Amino acid sequence: MAPRPGIEGARALLKKPEEEWVLMEKSYRDMLKAKGGEELVSLQDEYIDKLTSRFTAYKNIGTDDVHPIISKEEFISVMKWKFRKGKDRSNFLMKGLLCNNEENIQKALHQAIMRLQKYPSDLKGALKIITTLNKVGPASASIFLSMIRPKLCCFMDDEVMDVLSPSGKREYTPKSFFALAGRTQEIAENLGGNWNPYRVGRALWTAAMRHIYDRPADIENDRGDVPTVNIRGGKKRKRTNI
């Protein structure tokens, strides 16, 4: 797959000191608005941020405990956020996503939270649980896992994967998710302070978007040109859950 536009900005951020990362992260909502308008900002505020606060607040959830983990409406709104923020794949995924009933959504998220409470580093087990939902692959599951455990992983934004993939390829697989989680953990540790993979992913995505939308001098590449992407040609690929 051809890399997404703007990744030069994200690559440049990797070489910057921690204070530059802080400044970049502060532009996150501005870049959400530039990418998807007020609708994307609203989805971030009303669903992503609120669900992150809710999930991280849960302590010692038991099998028989009843908690408002997530409603179907919230689940679908998170998917809308994903499609608005990245490549819109709703045409071939949304119908299947809507087939998930609220009981199964609640059950999957409940079990994933319990799994990470019992085994705090078991992303593999939690990923397996969430991807039992219809049309939910590793990339979609990574949204929920990053909200449940922001210290373990980030969302698999295309731009972040393009920059950090050890193979140089963007693949929506469990292996790629685990590699991305490990890499963002390393970066967060090197940055120090309160940095975690969740914040690292946001900052890198923001750097990529700034390179496209307002091209600040500190993240331009040597030639200062916006990358172009060939979106035509190539063999058709089999659609998979992402």
Form type: globular
- Low-confidence region ranges: 217-238
The structure class reads mainly alpha
What separation lies between the terminal Cα atoms? 15 Å
What is the number of helical segments per DSSP (H or I, 4+ residues)? 11
Instruction: List the secondary-structure elements in sequence, H or E.
Output: HHHHHHHHHHH
Strand content: under 5%
- Find the count of extended strands (DSSP E, 2+ residues): 0
| Radius of gyration (Å) | 18 Å
The residue-averaged pLDDT reads: 88
Q: Sheet with the most strands?
A: none
Helix proportion: 55-70%
Features:
242 residues, mainly alpha, 60% helix, 0% strand
SSE diagram, text form:
Blueprint: H1 7-13, H2 18-25, H3 28-57, H4 72-85, H5 90-98, H6 102-118, H7 123-130, H8 138-148, H9 158-164, H10 174-191, H11 197-213
Helix pairs in contact: 1-9, 1-11, 2-11, 3-4, 3-8, 3-11, 4-5, 6-7, 7-8, 10-11
Structural summary, described in words:
About 9% of the residues have low confidence. 60% of the residues lie in helices and 0% in strands. It has 11 helices and no strands.
Summarize the structure.
This protein has helices spanning 7-13, 18-25, 28-57, 72-85, 90-98, 102-118, 123-130, 138-148, 158-164, 174-191, 197-213.
